[in-house]
Amino acid sequence: MKVKDIVNREIVNLTNCEQEPIHIPGSIQPNGFLMGLKEDSLLIDYCSANTSVFIGKTHTDLLGKTFGDAFGEDAETELLDYISKDRMLSSLLLKTILLGKEFLCTVHKSNATVIVEAEPINSVAKQVNEVYDHTSQFLSYMHTTQSLQDLCGLVAKGTREITGYDRVMIYRFDGNYNGEVFAESCREDLEPFLGLHYPHTDIPPQARELYMKNLLRIITDIDYSPVPIYTLDDKEDKTLDLSLSILRSTSPIHVQYLHNMGVGATLTISLIYKQRLWGLIACHHYSPKNLTPEMRLAAQLQGHFITSQIDVRQSNEEYEVSRKVNAAFDKMDAFELSDNPASFAELIKKPELLGLCNANGVSLVFEGKVYLNGVTPSEDEVKFLAGYFAEYTENSSISTSKLLDILPDYASLCENTAGAVYHSLDMEGSNCIIWYRSETKTEVNWAGDPSKSIILDKKGLSPRNSFELWKEIVNCTSKPWLQPELDTAAAYSNGLQRQINLIKITQEEQKYRKLSEMLKEANAELENMNWISSHDLQEPLRKMQLISSHLLYEDEIPEAAQKSLKRLNISAERMQTLLQDILKYTRLKYSEEDFELVGLNQLVGLVADELTEDSEAIELKVGSLPQIMGVPFFLKQLFSNLISNSIKYSKTDVPIEIQIKAKQKPVAYPTTKDESYYLIKVIDNGIGFEQKYAESIFNVFTRLHLATEYSGSGVGLALCKKIVKNHRGYITAKSSVGKGTEISIYFPVEG
């Protein structure tokens, strides 16, 4: 049997530490031993090199054997029972006897491998009741503290008492994973770290990722010698993922970092809040120190306790802020705007408008005018910000406590108004509201210069070794906007936008109302003028016809003059017809109140009798027509014009044939699929026209033939279209030259 170790021997330094595969070091710490068993057979596939120290058998003795062969059937049965009940990584560790010695084992799965980490039972471990008493004490903290920081302070103190570490810190991350010592308990002779900040480079991304997976990490002795893990040499590139391992060996970079701090042993517990690494419980000891597995679990419970309280405590701390801003919102929400500029001037001066989000200043831009209150930029600067934010946010919203990060070239603008909350009040971005906060100079105490977190010395790149206090003054930054403040600002902006939209709609209504009144007056004047002019024009036309008729009977009138007088008479008659048609067209208006049920068979029959009584050469066939809602007078005019057109534009060499028929069932008009119409067709065998004129013939004054060929004003079909449109219907034409015309009329079917 051939074996090999899986130690990761890649050279790690600070230039590649962020890519270091810290989850597969191939080695462990020496305070216990590790075995990796194949899940299906429990065959020992991996084994640390220190088993002889604990059980008197080397790794070569164990590799290739099953767990039962190596430790007996009882031990195998206990392990299988533990795995089957899914107790892995639970608070109930596996207590077992291996080759006559008692061990507490942490068991978990890594892919298809069951990892067993065994540590000898400590005979001087704290009694269970003592651990319980310390643990139960944490519950009392909920009743004796108000703020999250006070609670964390008590947890740090209690954790140090139960674990015995020299220093216990509650370490909190910001949005960029820079850390702050939020609470601390330490020996009296030690320099406190409370309030110190540490750069994000101290804990690289892959380390933070492991903290999310494995909530507890212990180093019992910084000066330990890593124990290699061996495996059966049966395939290339074998490795073992130790992400969840308690004994996993530590990155040499991290060990050097702890050496530089003077630390001898550590315990780290992850604090996870809303699926993000919120912080750590970091325990330091200045000499080697180990904890029993039971004590580690008790300490880990404190981490669960803190994370369970983060939401509650933050909510309590934000409650007072929320109460105040909501009170301001209620007052502002009751204020009703009008389109009077004085109303906006009154609004901007309301102190509650600033209180909505505890701002120092506010600006409102409406229809190009700027309204200001408090500490704000100038009017020109506000207009610039309004335009910039409208484009930057696509007419949405944004909040920042450091405006300089968004506008790095405008330092002077950001000095007095370091923070801003912007909300657009329309889709064009021309109207908006912006709240401002003044600069708050902040002093940040770093544990060493954060810009020197990596140093270059004769050994090359290494972690910083200076943790002396380094102070940084943060400029051009405002106090952060709290979530209740942002929520209230957003809610008020939405309400303000609705009010402004209502004002704009009201303004548009007033404008259209005035335009409608002006249009109505103009139409009335035009109609009156049209009637007067048409009436006055008809009188001289009648005189022209009368005089020309008298002159035609005179014997002395030359033949050429008689022809001229006849043409004059015909022209006057045509002009009179045109004026009468124009009058009909312009006065064609009515409302649905004038509608009544009209039987088209009876109405068309009356029209046909009037138009065909003097001619026997006209064959008019009328089918079964529906009853529709309409105005009888105008419907009679409609069919009279259509039948007259069929007679007028008939062929001279054949009898006139006209059909008026209807579809038996309602149909849909091609462009309005969801409505039903009665379809009525007027079909003749006249001269027809080219189909390309099918739409233009319904325009006013459109004529396809010379006036000398066919009489008419060119208004008839336009009049028909207007009548049909006023009945909420449609009219179309289909024709070809010499083959007659088909007029289709769609009347809506009333509900």
UniProtKB/TrEMBL annotation:
EC number(s) stated in the UniProt entry for this protein: 2.7.13.3
Annotated InterPro entries: GAF, GAF-like_dom_sf, HATPase_C_sf, HATPase_dom, His_kinase_dom, HisK_dim/P_dom, HisK_dim/P_sf, PAS-like_dom_sf
Coiled-coil positions: 505-532
Annotated catalysed reactions: ATP + protein L-histidine = ADP + protein N-phospho-L-histidine
Record Pfam families: GAF, HATPase_c, PAS_2, PHY
One record GO biological process: regulation of DNA-templated transcription
Gene Ontology MF annotations: phosphorelay sensor kinase activity; photoreceptor activity
Segments forming domain Phytochrome chromophore attachment site: 147-304
CDD domains reported for this sequence: HisKA
Protein name: histidine kinase
Organism whose genome encodes this protein: Algoriphagus locisalis
